[in-house]
């Protein structure tokens, strides 16, 4: 089987943000389900974004009507346990108080794995 893929030079359209999805739902009900009007108004109200196609709008409306939300479903996988908001604040605060200490001592003092501590410090841009 031969599959031919044309490279049009265009990037695939990025995922719609939550704000854009909410806007689409508002436009859908404001325009009483007119795809054409929704797409036109979306282009006006969200000028930097590419307009979604009819299928995208329809799936979004179905999801909203079925579940009452347009937010993403929670993802599966192992939950993050160290990188919590509480731990980020604790690391930030501890770093300000003792900026000379090594990450090894920080991790022992805070009872957080060193690799997690390094990730937190990187996200906080501390070291």
UniProtKB/TrEMBL annotation:
For this protein, the parts annotated as crossing the membrane are none
Q: Which GO terms describe its cellular component?
A: nucleus
**Where in the cell is the protein located?**
Nucleus
* Origin superkingdom: Eukaryota
Q: Where is the DUF4817 domain?
A: 18-71
* Primary residence: nucleus
The protein, known as = DUF4817 domain-containing protein
